[in-house]
């Protein structure tokens, strides 16, 4: 006698039972047991003075008698008397074992205990009940309890999950059993998504000498394939060959699918050649998998060749075959050929489904042939097929690729009239696309229709609509959308606020813009440089220079936004007013805040000072005799703008300021070189000597920056 492989656990007398079961081809039974080994009955001697029907020591006998007489009301009576107060899982197993010849009574008591008693059932209780139901061929209820047991144990570690298998083995010593229970366990694991556990159960089952059915094995192979466990699939296949379990067409198709997923089509062909030598003829499923894989790999010639081979062998192509070929042709750019094949399919009596139509529509949309795509769409509707979400998506994106969003919108409206349900995602996609293409009113109309169809527009859609309206200078309409958002407890984002504030400032409605800015701050949204520019420029446009400067200071202090563009706008406005003192005072105030003028600021500043050169001695900006030269100059860097300086006319030996003097460049060069090489600051402050007393005029020197550069060795 061949020795049986030992289990990973110790099972008393189990090896003898396994050998006996193998000889009997797994048609096994054991006598009903009155007690369970190692039981510890209640032994309180006081109970012996009680009547028999009130003695807790007799609870098992009383329950079994009640179940045998189908007197289920008596169970409630026993519970009222408190006889179940000490009822344990051990007594529960004893009752089940005594009732195993009547699976209906055992199952009734099993359900009654779970609903009436707060008893924590053990794995042994579950397994005994499962064995009883399987032995009586009540597979439906047995599988239900087995699934529950697997799920309960599945929450623990791997070792705890394996206890289900071992508990079933241990319970076989005490009750009738059928080896089909192990097939059911593999399927239960698979139904709960515990594929690895089903594989382990299969390995243990084979190790103990049990042979699973080909149906169970195919289920296991399919589960492993779906999870991508290709190596384990081949392990199962090798075990099948070792134990003599003959594969069928489903087995080979699953393994073919495994190879196709790996992407090596040539390896698939080799496998099929070997299986054909073993007598297996590929069926329609096999051919469809291979044709689909060839098409996805771009090997259309091989796919068409295989299509011709299957026709010659008498395997009639079905809808899946044609759909796979149509898909391959469309992806290869041969959409016309795909349409011819589509007509051939219809001519041969096959009724195309939505997948076939969608494949052809996708092919036309990919090639930009929207008229043909519409034709296929309406043919689809004419045959009673309703376009699905994929159909609508493909058509909408096809129109968008051609920059024809209005055509996409009209198509959606047309489909709606046909009763086609447009998804919320498509509505959202269309509305956002229309907003980005500056078609806010078309987007607004579609948003209203979306609401009428029961969809709630998102906050993002409203914000994009406001942004688009403001770009088109439809500020009042944007404010109406804002009111609608507020009524729906939606909030504007920074982009929407920025758009409305910019639009209001552009329409000289700065006061409303300021209110929105305050609302934005209260909402906790950060202000940025664009909002600063819009508000400052709006105030400057309305000649509110003081308010503009206040805003500039506010943004600098509160948000550390130092915008040179806004600064230059104010410099230009103050320069145009012709009051150098105000301009210089403004520069001082801004410098304290941290603003740094650039070349444009210097140009504006100097342009303001030039017309007033004759009155420079009357300027009281800083210490007497000091003039701030706001010329942008980096340390040994560049100098931009025009430089205006006044100096003595000692070259002519005269202290008179009555005539304009032309200053020699070398003195200016000397000063610039000295200052710019010794003071590594962005802005140079040159000390000019005060004008002579009682002078009637002044001299003014204009020196081009380019001349200064060439003299001091700098580059423009």
UniProtKB/TrEMBL annotation:
Name the domain of life this protein comes from.
Eukaryota
InterPro entries given in the database record:
PPR_rpt, TPR-like_helical_dom_sf
- Repeat listed as a keyword: yes
Q: Where are the PPR repeats?
A: 178-212, 213-247, 248-282, 283-317, 318-352, 353-387, 423-457, 458-492, 493-527, 563-597
Keywords attached to this entry = Repeat
PROSITE patterns cross-referenced by the UniProt entry: PPR
User: Entry's PANTHER family?
Assistant: PENTATRICOPEPTIDE REPEAT-CONTAINING PROTEIN 3, MITOCHONDRIAL (PTHR47941)
Q: What family is this protein classified in?
A: Belongs to the PPR family. P subfamily.
By what name is this protein known?
Answer: Pentatricopeptide repeat-containing protein
Instruction: Give the organism the record lists.
Output: Buddleja alternifolia
């Amino acid at each position: 006698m061949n020795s049986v492989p030992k289990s990973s656990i110790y099972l008393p007398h189990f090896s003898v039972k396994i050998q006996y079961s193998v000889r009997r081809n797994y048609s096994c039974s054991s006598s009903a047991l009155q007690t369970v080994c190692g039981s510890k009955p209640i032994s309180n001697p006081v109970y012996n003075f009680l009547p028999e029907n009130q003695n807790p020591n007799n609870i098992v006998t009383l329950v079994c008698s009640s179940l045998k007489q189908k007197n289920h009301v008596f169970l409630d009576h026993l519970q009222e008397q408190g006889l179940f107060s000490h009822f344990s899982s051990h007594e529960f197993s004893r009752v089940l074992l005594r009732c195993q010849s009547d699976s209906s009574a055992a199952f009734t008591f099993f359900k009654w205990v779970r609903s009436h008693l707060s008893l924590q059932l053990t794995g042994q209780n579950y397994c005994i009940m499962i064995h009883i139901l399987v032995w009586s061929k009540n597979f439906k209820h047995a599988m239900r309890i087995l699934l529950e047991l697997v799920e309960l144990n599945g929450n623990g570690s791997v070792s705890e999950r394996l206890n289900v298998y071992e508990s079933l083995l241990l319970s076989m010593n005490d009750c009738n059993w059928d080896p089909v229970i192990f097939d059911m366990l593999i399927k239960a694991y698979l139904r709960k998504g515990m594929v690895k556990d089903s594989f382990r159960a299969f390995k243990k089952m084979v190790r103990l000498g049990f042979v699973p059915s080909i149906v169970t094995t195919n289920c296991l192979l399919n589960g492993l394939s779906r999870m991508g466990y290709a190596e384990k699939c081949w392990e199962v296949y090798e075990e099948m060959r070792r134990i003599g379990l003959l594969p069928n067409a489903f087995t080979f198709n699953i393994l073919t699918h495994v190879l196709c997923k790996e992407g090596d089509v040539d390896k698939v062909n080799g496998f099929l050649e070997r299986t054909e030598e073993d007598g297996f003829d590929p069926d329609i499923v096999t051919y469809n998998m291979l044709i689909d894989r060839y098409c996805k790999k771009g090997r259309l010639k091989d796919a068409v060749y295989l299509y011709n081979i299957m026709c010659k062998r008498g395997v009639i192509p079905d809808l899946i075959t044609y759909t796979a070929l149509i898909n391959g042709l469309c992806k290869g750019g041969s959409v016309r050929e795909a349409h011819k094949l589509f007509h051939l399919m219809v001519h041969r009596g096959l009724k195309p489904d939505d997948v076939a139509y969608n494949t052809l529509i996708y092919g036309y949309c990919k090639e930009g042939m929207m008229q043909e795509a519409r034709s296929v769409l309406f043919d689809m509707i004419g045959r009673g097929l309703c376009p699905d979400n994929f159909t609508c998506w493909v058509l909408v994106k096809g129109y968008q690729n051609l920059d024809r969003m209005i055509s996409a919108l009209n198509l959606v409206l047309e489909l709606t009239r046909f009763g086609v349900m447009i998804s919320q995602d498509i509505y959202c996609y269309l509305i956002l696309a229309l907003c980005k293409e500056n078609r806010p009113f078309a987007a607004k109309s579609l948003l209203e229709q979306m609401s009428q169809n029961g969809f709630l527009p998102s906050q993002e859609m409203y914000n994009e609509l406001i942004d688009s309206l403001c770009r088109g200078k439809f500020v009042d309409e944007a404010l109406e959308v804002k009111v609608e958002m507020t009524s729906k407890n939606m909030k504007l984002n920074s982009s929407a606020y920025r758009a409305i504030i910019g639009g209001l400032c552009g329409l000289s409605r700065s006061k409303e813009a300021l209110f929105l800015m305050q609302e934005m701050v209260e909402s906790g949204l950060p202000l940025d440089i664009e909002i600063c520019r819009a508000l400052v420029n709006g105030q400057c446009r309305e000649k509110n220079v003081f308010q503009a400067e206040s805003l500039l200071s506010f943004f600098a202090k509160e948000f550390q936004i130092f915008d040179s563009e806004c600064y230059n706008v104010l410099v230009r406005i103050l320069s145009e007013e012709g009051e150098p003192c105000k301009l210089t005072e403004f520069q001082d105030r801004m410098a304290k805040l941290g603003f740094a003028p650039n070349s444009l600021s210097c140009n504006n500043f100097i342009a303001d000072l030039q017309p007033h050169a004759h009155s420079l001695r009357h300027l009281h900006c800083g210490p007497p005799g000091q003039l701030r030269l706001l010329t942008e100059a980096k340390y040994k860097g560049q100098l931009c703008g025009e430089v205006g300086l006044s100096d003595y006319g000692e070259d002519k030996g005269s202290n008179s300021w009555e005539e304009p003097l032309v200053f020699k460049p070398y003195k200016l060069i000397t000063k610039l070189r000295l200052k710019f090489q010794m003071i590594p600051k962005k802005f140079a402050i040159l000390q000019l000597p005060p004008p002579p007393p009682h002078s009637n005029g002044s001299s003014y020197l204009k020196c081009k920056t380019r001349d200064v550069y060439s003299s001091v060795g700098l580059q423009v």
